[in-house]
Every structure is written in structure tokens, then in C-alpha cells.
Write a structure and sequence with these properties.
Blueprint lengths: L11 H20 L4 H19 L4 H8 L7 H8 L1 E5 L12 E8 L2 E8 L5 H6 L7 H16 L4 E7 L6 H5 L2 H13 L5 E10 H5 L6 E5 L3 E3 L3 H8 L6 H8 L3 H6 L5 E3 L10 H20 L3 H13 L13
Parallel strand pairs: 3-4, 4-5, 5-6, 5-7, 6-8
Antiparallel strand pairs: 1-2, 2-3
Helix pairs in contact: 1-2, 3-11, 6-8, 10-11
Length: 326
Amino acid sequence: MDTPAYTLEFEKPLRDLTAQLDGLRQQSMENNLDLSSEITAITGKIEATQRTIYSNLTPWQRVLIARHPQRPYSLDYVQNLVSGFQELHGDRQFNDDQALIGGTGFFGDQSVMIIAQQKGRDTKEKIARNFGLPQPEGYRKALRLMKLAEKFNIPVFSFIDTQGAYPGIGSEERHVSEAIAVNLREMAMLRVPSISVVIGEGGSGGALGIGVTNRVLMMENSYYSVITPEGCAAILWRDAAAAPQASAALKLDAISLDKFCIVDEVIPEPFGGAHHDPAKTTETLRNALQKHLNDLKDLTPDQLVESRYQRFRNLGVFQEATLAES
């Protein structure tokens, strides 16, 4: 497995070993030396270090992997999963939000409607896509496209990857909370199959605004939370540097959320994250989407609505108790 050029701090031991391996290979080629035993030893050490690091990731380390700049974004998956993708623009009220995109395409031989949150790679694209923070018009566009899918009986796939909805003044002036709330209500009543996937960051109502679906899937190194770790740390600990502690307290990682039945399936990733083998990750995601779509296709519209209602209604644990008499 090749190590991407950008490595995280906890991956430093792996980065150093990889540098040693590259040096040995170069030395062997330049000086025509047989260093196969040394190369084999370093390769084994790299594999052992990978197992040690990636088999014991903390919730905060998974957050860092979810934010890795080389991690596949929504459009990367769409381009490889969906053929004939045709992006549709605008909310018919204010603007076209590039942080939240949508359109039609074919998933195999099945027409689907894609709703996706998209970040940018370089500075220009990050600005154009508002760093992946959707505004009210993005959620209204998403709702318009979901209603279009309902009209033509097309399943909806949502790709979630945002720290949250944009909290700026303009966004508040155009009623971002109302736009998200309407989406929650309307998605709950959508009469076509719907599947959402948290592929990176799943933050707050910004994620939930396209996430009220029949099935909620989650990549192994993604997170899904009511708030970012830094935001939680700033509120509870008065210090954003307590983000690792907040990550553990929030139970935002895929393993915890699967245990609590918040998500329906955790999609495994290669050691180190999806960016180490995007093709393999895409195929794993394809298989998961196909499996859940097959499960939903035979349900009637009324059954789809009822199963979605029951899914979210049953989240959490409720207990009743009475005060002991003195």
C-alpha cells in the first residue's frame, strides 16, 4: 500500500519507515547493490506498523482521516458509481449552491437521483463551494430534486460530507434553519427509496438536512455528530484544543454509532483510509448501495414511509422512573 504524500501526525512513524524504504530502493538501483533482505525487513516493519496504528485508531484520529485532503469526495464517488450523471442547478428562488449538488444518472440500469455535499480541492474550488458548508438555497435545491425524484419514482442517494450548514449572516437571513427543518419533514414523507452515506464529515443539521432516509450508511473512517469536536470542546471545556477528548465523549465514530444502531451499515475502508485505495473503496460502497437498494425496491410507497418513520422513531433509549417515596 502506497502512503499518500500528505500524512497525519500520528502516521509519522509510518512516514519515516516509508522514507527509509524509498532510500534503500534508490540506493539499490543507483549502485547496483543487492539490498533485498534490508528491503524485505523494512517492508515487514511497515506492514506491522500499519496494523498497529490503524487497528487502534481513536475517535479523534478517525476525524482527522475523515478530513484528509486526499480523501475521495462526493463527486469522486459519483463519477465512478453513476453513469450519465447530469447535474441540475438552482433552487428556483435565490441561487445555485455549489456546496450541495444534485442530479440524475444511472446506478447500473437503475435511474437514481443524487444529492451530494461537495468540498473543494484547491483554494479556488474551496471558495466556490464554500468549503463544503451548504446554505439555505442548497437545501431548497436538494428538496426540489427529491420531489422531482418522487414524481418520476426514482430512488434517492445522498452523500453526506460537511462540518455543518453555513452559519453566516446571509445564510441566517435566508432562513437556513427553516430550510433544513422543511427537508427533515419532507424527506420523512418521501414515497421513493432513499439511502444516505456519510463519506467523510457528518456534522449537525447540515448533515441531517439530506440524511433522513430509509437507510443510513457510514464509511469506517467518517464521523456523524450533532457538533464538530472543536465546537463541543469550545462549549464544554472552553478550549478547542480539547477536541480529542470531545470526540471520545460524543461517540461520533462509525463503530460507536453502529453499536447504538444509529447507522445501518459501516462500510470498511483500506488500512489508513479510503484515500489509500479509492477504487477498492468505491467497489465496496457500490456493493453496499446495491444491497440496500435491492431491499427497498420491493416496498410500496406506504411501506417506505412507515419504515423510515419507524427507523428514526426507534433511535435512542427512553426510560420512565418514579421518585421513591420518602
